[in-house]
């Protein structure tokens, strides 16, 4: 891993006062544009795949799971409701009859306040009227302006029956959105993927016989050419191993990793999810488990020419990931994913990474599924990263090493944008962490 001087803003005059330093950090973290490197959002050209508005915001799976802690409504009855009815129930239960103390509920409060709406309203009539009055293009521009998100990365699944036809139709999409090639069906649901691939003309076998690996490389080549993704990605269970005598292990070894190497395409691993621990809750029923990160160690050691982005879902895996990143220059930890995206945990993880890795990681991503979520996720993330960065600078002042506004601007840019942009080749001149 090499770190070159980055383009920095601000003078080189040392900051010697803690209060002035705090102000400088807060200003830099507020004003620095963000590259949101992992979302589930879609460019407007993808139509109804892109989610926004109060009903979508309230029926997010975090809030659905929380609903059942307070409401006697059964999952079967809930799923039989229409989305507006579900949103009304969640609002009445979590925001009117109870105080919205959870991070997910408080995030909705933040969104409504940012838009000038009443977060203590007795019902959703005002919020619905507001969103009915908005066009997507105007609202998207407002959200990106308010959050200072200059660009973001989608999650793109070539096996999705709604999404794939959009790509196959030669879509030209909003340049603020980048693609990421998601490979979960290929790697985690191979028996279900085989008939879909066969129907598209790929001669693949469930037992991986014949030219299955070659056919899968042809499939990947085609989708890389079509999407022009910044990276390939997969979410993996806590039981993930590598190498592994399984369809997933063979697919990784013989198709995915060689193809990523050929295209110089980074590979993102999100490890630790346990799907459907409570199937009645559907997407809201997923859980987590502690993973064996020796699999990451073997991948980084055995494929030293590839760049890996890694996020882990278990709090217990975070320190080990930092240690691995110190040993392998082709590993870039990123963000606080899913159940990790809570203020107390984000603060702990960010401080730990600064202590062990300096500024050589990606501080956060939104993981947003609903456009409105950017409004609270980035407000919260900027504040938490600012707190951690200030606490990292303060001992430097106490020990006699001055910090300059240029230092602060450079570090904020690396953590919020530059490290990722350099890693995926978006900005070769950024001077951030990259292995080339």
Account of the 3D structure:
With 436 residues, the protein is α/β, with parallel strands linked by helices. The chain has 2 domains: 18-48 and 152-423, Metal-dependent hydrolases (TIM Barrel, Alpha-Beta Barrel); 51-132, uronate isomerase, domain 2, chain A (Orthogonal Bundle). Helix content is 49%, strand content 8%. It has helices at 18-31, 54-58, 61-70, 75-80, 83-96, 103-114, 125-132, 136-147, 163-168, 184-188, 190-199, 212-227, 247-263, 294-302, 318-327, 343-357, 373-398, 405-423, and strands at residues 34-36, 149-153, 177-178, 181-182, 232-237, 267-274, 287-288, 308-312, 331-333. The strands form 2 sheets. Strands 4, 5, 6, 7, 8 and 9 form a 6-stranded mixed beta sheet that branches. A 3-stranded parallel beta sheet has the order 1-2-3. Strand 2, helix 9 (163-168) and strand 3 (177-178) form a beta-alpha-beta unit. Helix 1 (18-31) runs parallel beside helix 18 (405-423) and helix 12 crosses helix 13 (247-263). The longest helix has 26 residues, at 373-398. The model is unreliable at 1-8 and 429-436 (pLDDT under 50).
How would you summarize what this structure contains?
By secondary structure, this protein is α/β, with parallel strands linked by helices. It has helices at 18-31, 54-58, 61-70, 75-80, 83-96, 103-114, 125-132, 136-147, 163-168, 184-188, 190-199, 212-227, 247-263, 294-302, 318-327, 343-357, 373-398, 405-423; strands at residues 34-36, 149-153, 177-178, 181-182, 232-237, 267-274, 287-288, 308-312, 331-333. Helix 1 (18-31) runs antiparallel to helix 17 (373-398), helix 8 (136-147) runs parallel beside helix 17 and helix 15 runs parallel beside helix 16 (343-357).
